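DM between two lab members

TW: hey, do you still have the DNA polymerase I entry open?
JB: yeah, one sec
JB: this one, 939 aa:
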Amino acid sequence: MSDDAPIHLILVDGSGFIFRAFHALPPMTAPDGTPVNAVFGFTNMLARLLRDHVGTHLAVIFDAGRLTFRNELYDQYKAHRPEPPEDLRPQFALVRDATAAFGVPGIEEAGWEADDLIAAYARRVTDAGGRCTIVSSDKDLMQLIRPGVEMQDPIRQKPIGPAEVEAKFGVTPDKVIDVQALIGDSVDNVPGVPGIGPKTASALIAEFGSLDAILDAAPAMKASKRRDNLIEHAERARLSRELVTLREDAPCPLPLEELVCRAPDEAQLSGWLARMGFRSLVHRMGLKDTAAAVGVASHAAPPAAHADAPPAEAPPPPDRAPFGPYETVRTAEALESWVAEARRVGFCAVDTETDGLDPLHAGLVGISLAVAPGRSCYIPLAHEGAPAQAQLLPEDGVDEDPVGLQLPVAAALEILGPLFVDPAVLKIFQNAKFDLLVLTRAGAPQPTPIDDTMLIAYAQYAGRHGQGMDELSRLYLGHTPISYDEVTGTGRNRIPFARVDVARATAYAAEDTDVTLRLWLALHPTLRPNRALALYEELERPLVAVLADMERAGIAVDVTELRRLSADFAARMGEMEGEIHRLAGRSFNVGSPKQLGEILFDEMGLAGGKRMKSGAWGTDSSVLQDLADQGHELPGRILAWRQLAKLKSTYADALVGQADPGTERVHTSFQMAITSTGRLSSNEPNLQNIPIRTEEGGRIRRAFVAAPGYLLLSADYSQIELRLLAHVAKIPALREAFALGQDIHARTASEVFGLPIEGMDPLTRRRAKAINFGIIYGISAFGLGRQLGIPPGEARSYIDAYFARYPEIRDYMDRMKEEAKANGYVTTPFGRRCWVPGIGDRNAARRAYAERQAINAPLQGGAADIIKRAMVRLPHALANAGLDGRLLLQVHDELVFEVRQGQEADLSALVKQIMESAADLSVKLVVETGTGTNWADAH
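TW: and the structure you got?
JB:
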């Protein structure tokens, strides 16, 4: 192409096309199980464009997000648009990946719709004497058709010109905007004028010529409902015209010269097509087939975190044996044969089926085993309607016809028990802690040694994807297992697993262990190349037994005190409601967000309200906090009321029901593979959310008590994340302050503001403390200003002064962001990969959030690694010391123990020594301990 050749720009409406392709093509999945029918359609279309050389320049235009300037004009714009189908959501990112793989520019801009960018580029090209082809069938783009601008239907491969527009709208393209303004758009929630459809609108345009002329003529029209609507809704029509008009003055993020058509990098493109499983397209384009090299024919690693991130080490292709049919084991002889086979191969996958989700109360219904891919069985133990073998007489035909029988639980566990503790046989679980608790409660010895596929995946891919078995199976095996809902039903029709027909239970349960074994075969070999082997074997796997013991132990609660707290909270809430009603000027349901929104924004007229999709005002905590920060009293009182209501329902009331009636101990469940940083979380009860520094939070903690004759001991890492920051960012001043045992916040205030530490003003120290902790979480000037009650400009000056004094922190932050962008993850000081989805997102807000995650994850994840190291070592240390104490809880950076009175000093010294030596840093770890008869006094 010569430099003087006229430009022919092809603009692909990427956001519009993906919906068309999704609904036009049958379901398809990539080798990793990800839906790809829309991606396949898009890829074929892009390949055809490049092959046919229909233009000189090419770009794909995407929507950057739902919120644009139109939402500021009309807050209900697109408010009723439903969420995309589940099978479509993962394909949005893959279409962007496809664009990059072809070497085609992908363009989007925050605050603007793809249609606006298309309009702007079309104007830019035609003004330069070129022409533009828009690859889309979106009616909203038809207003752009004119000499030099045409459209092409990407699925039907037919041009769309003025004749097609007139057939659709009844007007020429230059009048489409006026027609759309009159009829509105129910999909985008453009209001229009009630009662006017396309035919009426086109007839009015034909008669009067334009929207303005129609509205001006309306009062003189013959009396009718249509005339009344045109008069009453004239402003809505004008607003609708503004909403549907595409902005040709929108930005063009990339100059035209960067949109020149270029041949794709064949190696990059063929590799991507192979990973997607688009083998036919590889051959059709004459590319080298790299499927064998990347293992695509049978398996692919999960998609990279963003387009530029290299994939992790891919697991080897799993065995392709079919999933089932599986054997139902009904006799002791058959079970003994399976046990012998497990001993021969040296490993087996194990799974339990129960009649509930709480492992400390659920009954054992059945057990499944797998010894090779496709070689799995189910042992029914407590299915209703199936008699136990021991209950039948010989004449019932036990030996000859065992169908319909099941082994008693005790008999099955007597056979399985020696296998569970055989050191030569590895027992493989998915979420082992649950199964260990179920099995030991049923009377089995605790299985050892074990592996856990959930934790094997988590050690490598925390934050990249979920670690549930079904998701891992789809990602790494390309197989969707039978779901629990398929065998038990849903909603009111759900039946207990004990009532599931044994044949269906076998297909479901045996498949679970088959999948678990295949996942182990696929994922365990990647631990070493992904540098996660030590993390898994030294931390995650041994922690399973530690946490299981903690959950069995539970912690005692004072039920009487909890009931007293509940009554007190209820009384205080009643008093607060009276004050809230006085401030509102009338009574209303304080717990109703809808009624509260009407009070705040309709009746009181407070500024800053935003309506949600439902049409109701948004009144979440961020909205109320903003209003409170502006000096409005009512929102602040509502926040205080909500906090009290949460404490009452979540703790004061719920803990009474969660306490074991016999022991009055509650048994929280620790979640091992939820967070992206390695931190543990807990539920039922969630102990992470009890307020630490409020009076009410202290009263909740006071209800957690020691057993008679014992004390609670709390051991808490002091400022561990700041110490890690000083270590990883190599900050001499902070390292020195920690080494000297100085008040770190006073030292920071002294360094930043140039003030002496002695006699430090408490307000200045508080500001330095807010900066110290805020920096870890990527706080903005606005956030710091709101926290300190100062203008954002003043807060920005504090942050700038902080970075000027500690430039190493800025260097660390930049380094983490670059590491995340390059790899898709950051690592803790101990090698844990914390994946950061969204680090390459084109949306600025999502990208900024991901960058804050990248900065904080090595610190929060490092703290999690350190406390896990201590937890793994502590039980053995306590046993070796002969102390009557046990670990009960882990909450953030704190461990809580129960210890016999008189032994607390020895336990405190031992715990402090182990926790402080859990990691060798350039900054000393410090642990603070305390004891008391309740958690509040010990903390």
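TW: got it. DSSP finds 37 helices and 23 strands in the chain. Residues 291-317, 390-401 have pLDDT under 50 and may be disordered.
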